Records
---
Amino acid sequence: MKQVNIGFLGCGNIGGGVWRLLREFEAEIARREQLAFRVRRVLVRDVSKARGGNIPREILTDSPEDVLADPEIQIVMEFMGGEEPAASYIERALLAGKTVVTANKMALSTHWAELNAAAQKTGAGLYFEASVCGAIPVIRALTDSLQANRVEGLMGIINGTTNYILTRMAREGSAFEDVLYDAQRLGLAEPDPTADVEGYDAAYKLSILSSLAFHAHVPVEKVFREGITRVTPLDIACGQEMGLTLKLLAVAKRSGDRVEARVHPTFVPSTHPLASVSDAFNAVFLKGHACGEMMFYGRGAGDMPTASALVSDLIKAASAPRHKLPEFFGGADGVSVDSDWSSVYFIRMRAQDKPGVLAKVAGCMAGHDVGIASMVQKGEPDAEGRVQLVFVTHSAHERAVRAALAEVERSGETSVRSVIRVEGIE
Ligand code: HSE
């Protein structure tokens, strides 16, 4: 039996889940893996605070040195969250030769180069399955199981909070603010929801996923990001009528040396596997040149799902004969990321219901080479004689669509209310 001493950095919900899973699975791990884990120190903010799970009081500490400078600790598990001081602590642990297992997508995606360099310098391992999509083993799949593939692209629902909100907006026809308020009341959304609803959380995760998928660093600053705060129940309903379902999608594509990485509200055909991913569930749909299409689905957050990924990384780290780090082409500064991608677009306008208006709109689109695939006029004219026009375009360049719509708006008769990208249509 190999004994491995570990130290925790942080012990909130996730740390508590890891503690419980380690205790619950102790005998299984010993029998199957010949490993015995001993938690030597647990860094917490307040050592006097009551904690569940029978964590012995004497292993709690509020000094990071007790974990980072303890030569007996071989593996550090980090679940403090946030960029700092977590990133500095991870780097110090790696430079001290300690392997790190972390759930921290923010520290990892914003300090990837330094952390990788520190691990390379000492030969320590850096494991981060839990940083993206909780329990779903998508990192392990990209780094191990799919190595014989050139991944051409991936699309993911990688933020559970926004998927929960959009699912309820679609089911109930409710406004974003109302569902968010309810989700906060139920403890399903954070009191400060910015990281989730503005797409930051998904952007950190997409930086990690796309870097591994394309073997090239896609820095988080280069990930295009748009949140769900401006999504309306009317857009969702119009999309549903056209056979489309709205999701906050993380999209990454590669074509030769060109990469695109973006997080934004996206319609997918309601028949697409991602359309059926509801509530707080996560999923990643990818395509490899040899494996074809596949989808990973599961729980992306929560104490035990996240602990599942962390403890499995811990077992892998403790049994690995040598640690493997991702190799990136194109250097640590990253690849060049495209900002003028092509996509299908859903466009909703409010326009005067009179002859010639539609022809002008179509003319502006045609003038910028934006083809119209379908169009519906919705409802009766309102008090100002205006109606809703909804278009779905053929695949077009983002800049061309923006230029066409700016011209439409200049006419004064038509105002553009929503522009939502559509993926999953060949
Ligand atoms: N807040 C994230 C989500 C979970 O809603 O999916 C942690 O990454």
---
Amino acid sequence: MSAAARRHRPFGHWSPESGEPWVIAGPCSAESLDQVLETARALKADGRTQLFRAGVWKPRTRPGAFEGAGYNALEWLQIMRAEVGLPFVVEVGNPLHAERALAAGADAVWLGARTTVNPFYVQEIAEALKGSAVPVLVKNPIHADLGLWVGAIERLDKMGLSDLAAVHRGFFATHPEPYRNDPRWELTFELRRLAPELPIFCDPSHIAGQRDLVESVAQIAMDLALDGLMIEIHPQPDEALSDAAQQLTPARFGALLDRLARYMESADPVALAQSLSADREALDQIDAQFVDLIQQRQAIVERLAHRKLEQGASVFQMDRWVDMLEQREAQAANQGLDPNYVKAFFELVHRYSVQHQAAVYQDQRRDEA
Ligand code: PEP
Ligand code: MN
């Protein structure tokens, strides 16, 4: 790994070596003092983890699952810090958790995906943390609502908690394939545009949902110039009381970090711009042609709408839509393109085509009325 870091605000008192990602690692849940110590000792020996994570109160979707060891776990983490020397971060889901975490001297806290989603909780927690200057990690809300994510960060900031970072842990997926949570990376780009100095970490464990995919997701996060990683580590992952499928052994985690390639957002901006300029111009020309083609297409769509109306036919014609999609997907496959890309593209084109035709129908009715 080698690269110069993007310019961003510092987070906490721990900084990675220049150009290295922040690394937060530890078990999904603190399960016992032994498990905490064993994990922390391995991470400390590896030397690349700045902050030890462990869930103390676990937000489980269904009741009856392991809900965390609570206050006992906070004590284990204090013992771990004294004996092993790693600072720790825990999840706080309500003001009482926040008070207990502060009383235990937690080095940082995080708001989970099920908390960020609710402005009432966020506000109450922000008030409970007020005056502490504790660093706070804000995970994205479960659903892909960037406003709630930004809103939670703003609520904390307004309470004087300015040592903040975002954690991208993916979004609820109706079809969790191949990942448990849909990465929707474009939302991290938008967050970066809105808050350019905010460090954004990635939690590849909760995105992937299975250990074999954690490394590739972590690498994508680095390829996209995210600032750090939060990864779940367990000495015996298969026996973990929560998220057993996605946790890594410390050894596998070390190997992941060894292989991780790190890129700069803009290594040498002048040289980069020069070496990309010809291809970027070519892309700009193609994109300009796209817009011309959209305009031409729109004119034909409008004619079609009038013809359909004359015939008393509906805007949406199922057979035609299925046929068109099949043709384009087959063409994509023939030309070595990802049919899903082409499908998504034409779904968008078709959505606007239908919208435009529906508007023609509406205008016509208004004129006749
Ligand atoms: C966790 O980090 O263990 C956790 C519960 O995360 P999330 O809030 O992202 O589901
Ligand atoms: Mn977990």
